[in-house]
């Protein structure tokens, strides 16, 4: 067993250059990647770079006085988090404050406009059949003479072209439809009037939200009356038609109030944007609730090369409702063969249906860009919040204030690093060269990796993260000190430097690994159980702890092995930090102690 040990020791001593070359190549590669990506500085958080802080307050919906509870608030936070971070650690923070407030912090450098729009979109997501639509600001309907190929568009957050369509199960393409799109204005008007009087789309209009109504046109409407008995009073229908006629979606003040307060079982008006043109909609009662969408994702159609599309999957109840409504819509003419996807009372998309979709899987296709498809999929996936929220306050953190905090953090870090270096120079003298070089390597790796994590996982450096990096200076220096003291202990026992370096390493290695494991475990637990900025501290502490292990194993130990062959260190120069006399080594006592045992044995 002794021979292999010697072989391994000699091999370890003869290959320190490989470890040094490996870590230097890694630093060079990471640095090259940083410059190639164009992100040469770490992404800063809201408290350092400035940004926007939004306070959202939960509001009880009519008939649901107990909707504001911890479960629903936690669900809302999770959905909002996935929304703003679906735009991966991202510095955009979403967390509860008290029992009914949610705080959203959007840092500068993030697409704050889009993130704010995603967070502000806090109403329910609904699928409603389209009864009528017109280009906003004009009195004449654009739809009676429109062809099926112009039967779709998208609102804010998604802008598919008017050629968007629905496909069944991702296989069956939408066709031009069996119904002719050239219905007269008179029949169009009758269909609209009948739909409004029924309280739900009549057989001559769009389908009802109720599964029974869609299967049997004579079944009761959501209001409780049959279509013939009028589920909505005639004056209410007339009032809604008048409201629709007067609606001008090109005016922001009218868009802000369009459809507000409408109940799911009632027809309503809404606005949507087709490209750069605002469109107003007259919509039937809710056919499918957004909560019944299991999954939505953007995907590229590689089979037919039709471009980007949005794929939806419904749960069991949603599958049945969607099959009922699309079966009815497929028999209608434009625009009443369309269903509107309504989020926050705004139509984000209105694809048309030409064939029933009965399998619970649907695709919305058209001239989507990747961003449009992903944005619509994001809304479909996370649009149905369990509560309604309103913006209570919006505040802006200036970059100047963030700059002051960053400067204070950097000054604190520089002071801490300077004190550590002074201590190492005074106490360890020549060994401090190894320690300072190791600290520089660790700092370089930390900086480059943080710069690369910004564009990759949206990691942002906040003030607690800076504190974590400062604490890491002490953890890294502690590893060097453990190893140096083990080496000095071996020299005190009378060994020369090269054997001392190798014999000290196994014991120092165990101590360093245990210490770093405890630090990493604490960082991991802190990251899991906390929220917000504290996670930045935990993430940085865990990252620097892992880098400490890498630096000690691949740089500090190999560098000390190489320097132990130099005369300055090997001879125990008084400024090397390894002077046997200064360390109190007493080799003569060790030599006189060894022959005493045989002499005593001989006398015995």
Please tally the β strands and state the result.
14
Strand order of the largest sheet: 4-7-6-12-11
User: Which consecutive residue ranges, at least 5 long each, have pLDDT under 50?
Assistant: 1-13, 139-191, 196-231, 588-592
> What oligomeric state do these chains adopt?
single chain
Description:
The protein has a 5-stranded mixed β-barrel with strand order 4-7-6-12-11, surrounded by 4 helices. It has a 4-stranded antiparallel sheet with strand order 2-3-1-14. Strands 5-13-10-9 form a 4-stranded antiparallel sheet. The protein has helices at 2-14, 16-37, 46-49, 70-85, 112-120, 185-198, 211-215, 234-246, 252-257, 316-329, 370-382, 399-428, 431-457, 463-492, 497-529, 533-563, 567-570, 580-583, 587-593, 596-603; strands at residues 51-59, 93-97, 101-107, 125-135, 165-168, 268-274, 277-283, 288-289, 293-301, 307-314, 339-343, 346-349, 361-368, 388-397. Helix 4 (70-85) runs antiparallel to helix 5 (112-120), helix 12 runs parallel beside helix 14 (463-492) and helix 14 (463-492) runs antiparallel to helix 15 (497-529). It is 50% helix and 16% strand. It is α+β, with helices and mostly antiparallel strands and 604 residues long. The chain has 3 domains: 9-44 and 398-587, Multidrug efflux transporter AcrB transmembrane domain (Multidrug efflux transporter AcrB transmembrane fold), CATH 1.20.1640; 51-116, Alpha-Beta Plaits (2-Layer Sandwich), CATH 3.30.70; 123-384, no CATH class. Mean pLDDT is 74; it is low at 1-13, 139-191, 196-231 and 588-592. A hairpin with a 5-residue loop joins strand 9 and strand 10.
